[in-house]
Amino acid sequence: MGKSDFLSPKAIANRIKSKGLQKLRWYCQMCQKQCRDENGFKCHCMSESHQRQLLLASENPQQFMDYFSEEFRNDFLELLRRRFGTKRVHNNIVYNEYISHREHVHMNATQWETLTDFTKWLGREGLCKVDETPKGWYIQYIDRDPETIRRQQEQERKKKQDLDDEEKTAKFIEQQVRRGLEGKELEMPVYTELNRENEEEKVTFNLNKGASTSVTAASSKTSSVLGQNALKMAEGAVKRKEAAHSSGQPKEKKRKSALDEIMELEEEKKRTSRRDYWLQPEIIVKIVTKKLGDKYHKKKAVVKEVIDKYTAVVKVIDSGDKLKLDQTHLETVIPAPGKKVMVLNGGYRGNEGILESINEKRFSVTITIDSGPLKGRRVEDILYEDVSKLA
């Protein structure tokens, strides 16, 4: 076999050697070339290509250092985020995993001299939480992704809403128990004298559950006396109740059933549930951002398409131009009374209705729903930002 043969033992040995990690002192970051020994590194430093790279770097060395520093920081943080997430981990563990990749950016080409300096810099910049322990420096990645923050806020809002629902349910049960106790009259025990005409008669005790008296005589005479007393007490109670009802006191209002109160609670829950997005197709909005210039500022447009709940493709009514805008750059449009509108937030979200009146002092409107199962219902005090004109 020839010397340059691909399957020669020397060629195979060279590939095996070049596959693994080599010594850092024999690596040229400018040329991104790894040498296997000191002689190879010396030959590389004397080569023409290396000299050209040094001439380019000498013109603006700070630019090259900033580039390598940025690459090192981005790759390190990406590995920390993907591999460990927001867990607390030793910085040396992350660094050893980072340098295990052959084509990584070496720290000696960056603005940081040691891993400790780089860790402190991450803490000062607010990219990670760092703390020093007797075992060394520990880092914890801070996830500032907008989607992650929005998801955390949604979970906190849902948790708070669940707690509010539990409190409302406990309060509702307490009210029901109180009402049930109010409707019952406390039964007072009746004490009677134990009479026995004959000393030879036996005395018996009646221990029936719920009985007002626990001791009764066995004789028929005593039983009749007790029966007459109980009858008189029952008649007196009936007379007192009838007298109370026949008095001039106003009648109490009819109590609502438990089902009606539960339905009211559910409706109140829907009415108070709000979301942080409100865009809907086929509504008229007003462009409020000034970044597009005076040509589109304060112009009205029709929402043609909603993208990712927070972005909309709108068509300007005057010029017919189509724009892609975030919901923060738009606001709702309140038409004149009698026009059709759509509810964009709250418990009646997605329902269409007719605008009845506008309350300028409270910045709210009153509408009558004209579609769906709630057709004909009149809803008051809907905020301006929760309703918009239909195209």
Chain-wise SSE layout:
Blueprint: H1 9-19, E1 27-28, E2 33-34, H2 38-45, H3 48-59, H4 61-84, E3 88-90, H5 91-99, H6 115-125, E4 128-133, E5 136-141, H7 146-182, E6 203-205, E7 215-217, H8 220-246, H9 258-272, E8 284-287, E9 300-307, E10 311-316, E11 322-326, E12 330-332, E13 340-343, E14 352-359, E15 364-369, E16 378-383, E17 387-389
Antiparallel strand pairs: 1-2, 3-5, 4-5, 6-7, 8-9, 8-12, 9-10, 10-11, 13-14, 13-17, 14-15, 15-16
Describe it.
By secondary structure, the protein is an alpha+beta fold. Among the domains are: 21-141, DNA/RNA-binding protein Kin17, conserved domain (Arc Repressor Mutant, subunit A), CATH 1.10.10.2030; 275-333, Roll (SH3 type barrels); 335-390, SH3 type barrels, CATH 2.30.30.30. The chain has nine helices and 17 strands. The protein has a five-stranded antiparallel beta sheet, with no helix packed on it. Strands 16-15-14-13-17 form a five-stranded antiparallel beta sheet, with no helix packed on it. A three-stranded antiparallel beta sheet has the order 3-5-4. Strand 1 (27-28) and strand 2 form a beta hairpin. The two termini are 81 Å apart. 11% of the residues are buried. Mean pLDDT is 78; it is low at 209-227 and 248-253.
